[in-house]
């Protein structure tokens, strides 16, 4: 009995005073049983053994007599050794667990001390990076009966150079983009993106390979602040992504808007929500005139979910271009209105010469575009989706009399509408292995339906006055690596013949 008490003292389960008290009582007839019962009660009190275990030990080895009673349960000497062994195992388990807990705590503290000096600063923890790279083969195939067309340069200049409308081309192109986002506040963030491309083409970030291994340029593609004071209200300022619901019939996907925009969303129920988006975007700031060029846009729409697997979205937008129509110069002041010529054009819009001597062209029509865009996403066969897209645009700013007066053509045609319909089947985005998507679109975009500078740069080689088909397939090769193939076949709607077929094969990687 004394050995067990000493063992408990050495392992720190009982104090020296408690050990001495137990040893003092461990004598006389029945003292062993009385003392063992006291030890069991003491161990239970200290939490070394549970009440259930204490009851089991009492039943097996004896219970101390109540105060004032002479009868004491005796523990045979032969069973004392087993009692000590059982208690010692329990004590050993408690000590091992205690040691393990202390070692773990010391290790965690040591790790914290070692890494405290290596932790990144607060600003670095709030910045996220991402980007993508695209490798493209592009084949352009022209009909032999295509007409010759003059090329319009920057600021409406026409030097006599021709567009390529007859000679097939095979090009390899790259696009690389790197973006960073920083969370400044719970409601405020800053965003930047650099990309390949140049400062003269707003609708493309491609670089064509084949310039004697010369280096390619990097431009500032995005730089904006985003403020979301409430969950359903968001503002953007700077050079930011397109804030509107759109297709590439009106806006090329590489277009980034410059200016300020805001969007408000109102949730009526789990099935219905409405949105309102608006913005003001400077197109060209001019030093010696107050006729700066602007774009003002507003869009209202709704998203409806009549079923968890069906989503329908529609938006009605109005885009008002201010001071973009050309003004003719005079012999007395031959450079006065040069600023009215567009900084960039593709092809298709009705133009007129503003120079009394020489050639410099500008837009002959005002542009106030009414655009209705819709999409239905059906996901009954998840993960496969069927997505139907429709888009319609009409230029309300076209005035046949004004355009005829500027161009000198009496019977100028009124070609001011455009529409696009399309079907996509498969994964909404093929970004993992074996994910796929197939799509087919038909587009009809008349000459003055939209400003040709900002519409899709691939369809018909860019611009308006074109109609045709787009057939494509997308396939996930690895996670965040996917292939895309597209065939675009187009023809001129009116005027000199121009038929173009374009094949694109892309290898895309995002990170």
Which architecture name of the largest domain does CATH use?
Answer: Beta Barrel
Please tell me the total number of domains: 2
Distance between the termini: 71 Å
CATH class of the largest domain: Mainly Beta
- Give the C-alpha Rg: 40 Å
| Inertia-based shape | elongated
Mean pLDDT reading: 88
Percentage of residues in helical conformation: 10-25%
* Low-pLDDT regions: 28-33, 67-75
How many beta strands in the DSSP annotation? 19
N to C succession of SSEs:
HHHHHHEEEEEEEEEEEEEEHEEEEE
The structural class is alpha+beta
- Report the biggest beta sheet as strand number plus sense, adding barrel if it closes: 16 strands, antiparallel, barrel
Oligomerization: single chain
H/I helix tally: 7
Question: What is CATH's topology name of the largest domain?
Answer: Porin
For the largest sheet, list the strands in their spatial order.
1-2-3-5-6-7-8-9-10-13-14-15-16-17-18-19
What is the name of the CATH superfamily of the largest domain? Porin
Beta content comes to 35-45%
